[in-house]
Amino acid sequence: MKKKDLLIPVAMLALGAGIGFWTRDRQAPAASADARGDLATAATRVEAPVADAATDAPAGEPASTVKPAGFEMIAQVAPGFAAAPLPPLDAKIADIYDALKERAQHGDGKAACRLAIELQQCVWREAIIQDLDRATRRMENRPAPQTADPRQAEWESRMLDMAQRQVDYASALDARCKGLSDAQVAAHVDWWRTAALSGHVPSLLHYAKGDAFRLNATLDNLERLGTYRNDAERLMRAAAAAGSPEALQQLLLAYAPERSPRGTLLQQAITPDPVEAQAILRLMQERGIALPRSEMGRRGEAIEPPASLSRLDAAAQARADRRLAELRSAWPQTDAATDTRQPPWEQEDARRKACDQDRFATLR
Q1: What is the CA radius of gyration of the chain?
Q2: Kind of pairing between the strands at 55-56 and 35-36
Q3: What is the Cα–Cα distance from 236 to 107, expressed in whole angstroms?
Q4: 3-state secondary structure 323-354
Q5: Is the model's pLDDT at 320 over the cut of 90?
Q6: 341-352: per-residue pLDDT in tens?
């Protein structure tokens, strides 16, 4: 399908569906679990590096109250093996695959991050093309507009410009993804896990939120999802301890009893805990961290504070006060939040650049 054939249908799909093909593929449900345990940090030397080590939580203890202290100790210095620069962003992925894989297998979290995001972008490209095909079919019988509206014409012009950029980006991805096998691309989940286990903070965020998984590949990833379920909470907490404001936002959403129809995998992996949620909310308020933006509205407004957190009884409120004091000590500082609202092609490039960040959490 040529770009010129795709441009108008894509723009019209954006007009009719809020640019639906830009939204992330939502995640499949994963049952909550109360198994907890430390994670191995040594890099595995296999094509699909997946580790799974867990022990049971104390009997009768709510899962979300088990907070391994080792994951709250943070070092902001990157390991020495991560000192080498990553390849240029415009490199063909097949040309840099072996070098990134070799570095990732030897524990280079930044290289594992870059390999993971490059492979996942190839998956994302396929989703774009599929949506473009559906848009074309949808627009074949679209009736012509009855009246001319200048404001509508201006909006359509902006949508056409954005659609052209989207098509250009997908075209560039098509060229960069050539030469990769399906098995290589499918292993992006494992490389995200490898990057997260290195303590690389941007990778911790991506993997612990569940963004490495895709709904249409659920059955292919059941074992990986089970491993993710056991580790997601402690990995996101490690990112929060490293000073990530987004980690605080994600933990708030995950611990709050309220659930969104478009919730993350992290919300499914964590047992709701209004006491912990309120403590995190108050910590965010003290540090000027805004509430996360809603994924349901078009304008991306910030969500309202979960209502259940203002209705704690006296005993629960006392526990929340104690948890807040503990979190202030365990997570002594949080970075300033930045507005991440960007077109999808800029978001993905920003994530690729984030792989080069020398920010690591200590996982023990």
Answers
A1: 22
A2: antiparallel
A3: 20
A4: HHHHHHHHCCCCCCCCCCCCCHHHHHHHHHHH
A5: yes
A6: 677 667 778 889
Alpha-carbon distance of 264 to 16, in angstroms, equals 25
Average pLDDT over the chain, rounded to whole?
Answer: 77
Residue 193: strand, helix, or coil: helix
State the average pLDDT over residues 26-52.
33
Structure tokens that stand for 125 in this block:
């490209």
**Please, which residues have CB within 8 angstroms of residue 83's CB and are 6 or more apart in sequence?**
none
Is 157 exposed, middle or buried, given 0-12, 13-18 or 19+ CB atoms closer than 10 A?
Answer: exposed
Single out the residue of 201, 19, 212 nearest to residue 128, CA to CA: 19
Predicted TM-score (pTM) of the model is 0.75
CB 102 within 8 A of CB 43: no
DSSP code of 160? H
Asked if 82 and 110 count as a contact pair (C-beta separation under 8 A), the reply is yes
Query: In one letter, which amino acid is 261?
Result: P
Half-sphere exposure of 236 (CA within 13 A, CB side): 31
First to last CA, the chain: 50
Q: What confidence score (pLDDT) does residue 35 get?
A: 32
CA 172 – CA 203 distance, rounded (Å): 24
* DSSP 8-state symbol, 129: H
